[in-house]
């Protein structure tokens, strides 16, 4: 092979190696980008997992603190605690279709005031009092209310006022009404309807005050 042939051969392979080198460089760059993307996703997953674990830890601490604060009322069997919601059967608090608080119900509420005040003050939270009913039309039981929503609202207000009268600061408690929404049992029989006629109380964060304009 002559010198001219060697030059011609090297000239032919030169562009091929250049293209191959460019291809490898591109593949390497793409691999690095993919690797970085995978690492970022993994870091996000780890962060999300850590946040979820911390959230559950805080919720568990909160639940245990609330159980400890309400140990005596819970032991009476007239108060329940489920996922941070304090439940009282409607039959303990009110007669059927009525918003007049029974003496037994007032005693239950009175037993809750002190431990709840301490709990709320330690966490700077408020107490939401929610009223619920079964799905029967109120006309079957009482003519005083337009519907179940109105009945549940009046019962929630009655409980709220009773808590305030027993020492709960009015700025730390408010009422909400749900009527027949959010049942905890079937309304197909009296046992389930009795469970749905209830009042629940739940500590909730205080609303953040908007920043005042300068």
Automatic annotation (TrEMBL):
<feature type="domain" description="OmpA-like">
    <location>
        <begin position="81"/>
        <end position="207"/>
    </location>
</feature>
<dbReference type="GO" id="GO:0016020">
    <property type="term" value="C:membrane"/>
</dbReference>
<dbReference type="InterPro" id="IPR050330">
    <property type="entry name" value="Bact_OuterMem_StrucFunc"/>
</dbReference>
<keyword id="KW-0472">Membrane</keyword>
<feature type="transmembrane region" description="Helical">
    <location>
        <begin position="16"/>
        <end position="41"/>
    </location>
</feature>
<keyword id="KW-0812">Transmembrane</keyword>
<dbReference type="InterPro" id="IPR006665">
    <property type="entry name" value="OmpA-like"/>
</dbReference>
<protein>
    <submittedName>
        <fullName>OmpA family protein</fullName>
    </submittedName>
</protein>
<dbReference type="InterPro" id="IPR036737">
    <property type="entry name" value="OmpA-like_sf"/>
</dbReference>
<dbReference type="Pfam" id="PF00691">
    <property type="entry name" value="OmpA"/>
</dbReference>
<keyword id="KW-1133">Transmembrane helix</keyword>
